[in-house]
Amino acid sequence: MGDAFIRHIELLGYEKRFFPSQHYVYMFLVKWNDLTEKVVYRRFTEIYEFHKALKEMFPIESGDINIENRIIPHLPAPKWFDGQRSTENRQGTLAEYCYALINLPHKISRCLHVVNFFKVRHDDMNPVTDSQIKKPEVFLLPKDSKKNLTDITGPIVLQTYRAIADYEKSSTSEMALKAGDMVDVVEKSENGWWFCQLKNKRGWVPAAYLEPMDGPDESEEQEPNYAGEAYVVQKSYTAVEEDELTLKEGDTIEVIHKLLDGWWVIRKDEITGYYPSMYLQKAGEVNTSVKSELRNRGAPPRRSTIRNVKSIHKQGRKQISQETYRRNSKKYIQNQRNMRGKSQNRVNVIIEKNEPEDNKPKAQPAVPPRPSKDLILNRCTESTRRKIL
């Protein structure tokens, strides 16, 4: 029998899981050439990493050399915060992607990268669960939405954004914009540079120059996390604006708010400020050549520095002042210190209560009062009475 390959992939729906923390996984029915059928579970971040690796393996078919030669389908980048709505809305895109993937030339659709990714894993057969936490919730794709995918001929729909101001590119890998241009976002990078396409043009664009059509605020942005995540500075930067921080390579800081424009709010000791996310690396992560190459680029512009901004939304984007960041950050740190202090006091009390009896000073017996002469004469023996006479 020849090498194994996949005949068909069908998206069944998704699961909402609560262990080790709340997350979502997609369910795929994978049909193999030996007529077996297996159900596998994959997170969207896994699928997107698989997709990026596939594009690197086949640069011609991915359109990296010439966009007209692209046959590998598009797949939008994962959102920073994947909630249930985004997980549900992405199902149609994933179903189309899987159909297009399996119908690519055999050198792609039957390569080891594709076969190995959809092979059954141990956790597919035995998902990690915890009896103390809610059981997974299953959401199956409605039957009426499972239309015949052979009828699908159009491209996967990408997110459309609008340029709020003119942008002049500074390198060949970037793309110039005019205020009002409507671009399709192919990939959102957390460093603040987004890969976009406009008609026949493609290139990197600063996220700060783009706004969504349905509102000024990015629903993908997470809320501030004043507990902070430990990061290490990989490239020095000298502050240009008053609310930015100057740091040196090797400094350890805490990220408290990740913003889509690539300028994150960080904390150094008790001082907060903006810093380019592309110059940071999560503590413990291994450095890669791709990350090193990205750091050679300049930091993207901040939205607050863009002139002649023309938004279609009456209400501006939600913004948090740097003073609010500092105040809330200090408040969080102080609360943590107080909690640690109370915890230490409780430990000390317990130690005192459990102290061994041998270590405690023993009580001394009280000295009885000296008896009077009359009492000795009346109650004591003859020999004792003679001593006081």
Give me the secondary-structure topology.
Layout: E1 6-17, E2 23-32, E3 37-42, H1 44-57, H2 84-89, H3 91-102, H4 106-109, H5 112-117, H6 122-125, E4 137-140, E5 159-163, E6 182-188, E7 193-198, E8 201-206, E9 210-212, E10 229-233, E11 252-257, E12 263-268, E13 271-276, E14 280-282, H7 289-294, H8 322-353, H9 373-379, H10 382-388
Antiparallel strand pairs: 1-2, 1-4, 2-3, 5-6, 5-9, 6-7, 7-8, 10-11, 10-14, 11-12, 12-13
Protein name: NCF1 factor
Pfam families: NCF1_PBR_AIR, p47_phox_C, PX, SH3_1
Organism: Donacobius atricapilla
**Total count of helical runs of at least 4 residues:** 10
Question: What about the largest sheet?
Answer: 5 strands, antiparallel
Q: Which architecture of the domain at 6-140 does the CATH hierarchy give at level 2?
A: 2-Layer Sandwich
Distance between the termini: 126 Å
Q: Please give the radius of gyration in angstroms.
A: 34 Å
- H/E series: EEEHHHHHHEEEEEEEEEEEHHHH
CATH superfamily of the domain at 6-140: Phox-like domain
| Share of helical residues | 25-40%
**Low-confidence runs:** 148-156
Strand order of the largest sheet: 8-7-6-5-9
Give the class-level CATH name of the domain at 6-140.
Alpha Beta
Might you state the CATH topology name of the domain at 6-140? Answer: PX Domain
What's the mean pLDDT score? 82
| Strand-pairing-aware structural class | alpha+beta
Beta-strand level of the residues, as a percent range? 15-25%
Number of strands: 14
What coarse outline follows from CA principal-axis ratios?
Answer: elongated
InterPro entries: NADPH_Oxidase/PX-Domain, NCF1_C, NCF1_PBR/AIR, NCF1_SH3_1, NCF1_SH3_2, P47PHOX, PX_dom, PX_dom_sf
Main location: cytoplasm
Protein name: NCF1 factor
Subcellular location: Cytoplasm
